[in-house]
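Ticket #4471: structure output looks truncated?

Reporter: J.K.
Steps to reproduce: submitted the chain below (233 residues) through the standard prediction queue, then opened the result file.
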Amino acid sequence: MSPTVRVASYNIRKAIGTDRRRVPERVLEVLAEVDADVIALQEADRRFGVRSAAIPPLLLDNQSKYKPVPLNVQTDSMGWHGNAILVRKEAELRAHDVLHLPYLEPRGATMAEVAVKGATLRVFGMHLDLSGLWRRRQAAAVIHAAGQGTAMPTVLMGDLNEWSAERGCLADFARHYSFAPCGRSFHARRPVARLDRIMHCDRLTLRDCGVHESAAARKASDHLPIWADFTVA
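Returned output as attached by the reporter:
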């Protein structure tokens, strides 16, 4: 039987909840509830100063089943321009990299090739610009990067910052990838927008997907996490 892998995307807002308190333990509680194999995080680092990780490394190691993909960019940060990828501790990392995106304000994306549950897949995490023009340029850069190298099951996910239903960068991605219809994820207290998205290539079969709307998730961040289950060919 082909393995089923769960991926998730979550803008954790630097671990600042809807009550304006920074409580990284709440983020870990939500991650445990979602129980994904691979997670793309956005706003995973603090914005100013040394840009330290929003979830302290020791806390992540002691109170979760995850390890961060080592991006080797900045000593105290978990991610690259706030983008980080977490995988289960037993997962094998085959490759990882950061993507330099065109930007008006500093933006980047991350990539990891992960072997987990007997399957291997390539995952891209991103947080795109507030400007529609720059979002499309950034989408083009991610699509180009995802098309390089050996063909393998590929997932792209993150906070696309796109409010339109099917225009802009969504139309650009849709020419190459399918969207998992997860649902509305922003704002966490009353979701009205599908800013967070999961996309996949035709080497993956979507089994289920959704938005995680627990009481903890509604408080831990202003975004709700989204998830998708895939059968990997």
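Triage note (M.O.): checked the attachment and the full token line is present. The chain has one domain: 4-232.
Status: closed, working as intended.
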